[in-house]
Amino acid sequence: MTAPDHEHNEHHGPRGEPAPRAGELSVRDRALLALERRSHAGPGAKERAIREELGISPVRYYQLLNALIDDERALRDDPVTVNRLRRVRDAKRGRR
């Protein structure tokens, strides 16, 4: 009997979607990138969408997104969004 694979479970979507095939993003990871691609009108609209669509807090969303943009699978799946987010993050780090 093997121990549970907690890291594997971390890659499930908000509703327990099955794990992706090797080399593919999970449903949750694709949803994070899709939400990040969209524009959000008005204050609080993005945070509301994060809670309603993904079922997670905005803080958790940004933690997951920050880790995701370092994943080469995300870069292959959505290079425009991932590169934009990397540039923004690098610019913020440069100002600190």
Q: Can you summarize this structure?
A:
The chain is about 60% helix and about 0% strand. It has helices spanning about 5-10, 25-35, 45-55, 60-70, 70-75, 80-95.
Question: How would you explain this protein's 3D organization?
Answer:
This protein is an all-alpha fold and 96 residues long. The chain has one domain (23-95). The chain has helices spanning 6-10, 27-37, 45-54, 58-68, 72-77, 79-95. Helix 2 (27-37) packs antiparallel against helix 3. The radius of gyration is 14 Å and the shape is globular.
Helix and strand arrangement:
Elements: H1 6-10, H2 27-37, H3 45-54, H4 58-68, H5 72-77, H6 79-95
Helix pairs in contact: 2-3
Write out key terms for the chains shown.
single chain, 96 residues, mainly alpha, 6 helices, 0% strand
Strand/helix succession: HHHHHH
Major beta sheet summary = none
Helix tally equals 6
Shape: globular
Radius of gyration: 14 Å
Count of distinct strands:
0
Q: What's the helical proportion of residues?
A: 55-70%
Low-confidence stretches: 1-14
Question: Helix/strand-derived class?
Answer: mainly alpha
| Head-to-tail CA distance between termini | 48 Å
